[in-house]
Amino acid sequence: MRARRCAAALLAVATSTACAVGPNYARPPVVSPEAYREQVGAIEATSIADLPWWEVFEDPVLQQLHGQEATQVHAAAPAFGAVLVTGAAVGAALHQDSR
Asked: Which SS3 state, helix, strand or coil, does residue 14 take?
């Protein structure tokens, strides 16, 4: 029983003084660097997300193909529309025949 009291008293003393800092605590000075090694300015900062996808790879052939694709899509749009209309007409005709 005496050992338990002694252990409890020792535990109480240890836990009550474990977090005591004291009235004369002073925060240590921290020296911050003027600039970091990898730091870039706001004007120099560019993100890969800001580039168009075809310029990310820096491939002249890909850029040329993208330029051709942009003009050919507009020329192919009426033909694509005609295919859709024809497909709808064929589907409607097959649906009528199945009744």
From this structure: helix
The per-residue pLDDT for 29 is: 93
CA-wise closest residue to 66 among 58, 77, 83, 48: 58
Give the CA radius of gyration of the chain: 38
Banded model confidence at residue 97, pLDDT cuts 50, 70, 90: low
Query: How big is the CA angle at 69 (ends 54 and 55), to the nearest 5 degrees?
Result: 10
Nearest to 51 by CA among 59, 40, 39, 42: 59
- Encoded amino acid at 38, one letter: E
Q: Which of 42, 43, 68 is nearest to 54 (CA)?
A: 68
